[in-house]
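Slide 14.
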Amino acid sequence: MVSGTTSIEPYAGFKLDADTVVVSAAHQRAKLAVLGVDATAFGHCVAPSFFIGMAIHAGVSSGISSEGAINMVQSLIVHRCALLDEELSVNGEIKSISEVPRGRSTDTDVWFNDENGEPVITARCTSLRPNPDQAPGRGAGARAAPIIEDLELLAMGATHELSPECVKAYSSEGNSIHYDLAAAQKAGFRAPLIGGGMGVHFLLAVLWRRRAPQALSCDIYFRRPIFWDDAVTIGILGDNRAQALVKRDSHGALKVATEIAIHELISAP
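Slide 15: predicted structure.
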């Protein structure tokens, strides 16, 4: 939560405060450089992964604390690429809230429109706010079936070695489990975990270098936490219709941490 504000208890139908956002070319270069991602892959477009974090911060700016919340599922609809330095309006609504064994699940829609009111990006998120009194292993509600069931079918790409310095440099205020060791351990994690959008940058950069989409619709599933000292490898299924970040578990076995199902992809002319 932003310092100095009072947290609002969220409820279904809550409307986020209208706002505006701009992603500058300098900001995109700086944040992606921290991750070792070449910003030129996106050309004049804003990397869509940024809208994951911006949607969360739209809630924070409206008084909804993000402290301790975990993104479980994220949908992104890129109606058209947002342009660097383009001002977009932001609106959103909490669609539903439900109790799950591990805490509370919240579905939120946030949409970003251009100066003519035309849709540019729609971001839909299902997040979990764990109840500290519940055991960490308890369920977070119904889970979608895996997109990638056989890791042997993945074409493996680059491996990214994370570090606490890298993750702290990318992270922003609002949810300390992403940059503070004590906060992460209090929430039941061995170390801070990266924000969802941070990992998705690695995957969408590969997609943009190969296809440079003009429009895109995808669902992103955060299956396992990625910690600030993990190594993650990019895996591609088929012709980029599914992507994954994979990591080794405590026994050395490769597991899917994040996966993306791409439903619609319209390449730029």
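Speaker note: The domain at 19-140+149-267 is CATH 3.10.129.10 (Thiol Ester Dehydrase; Chain A).
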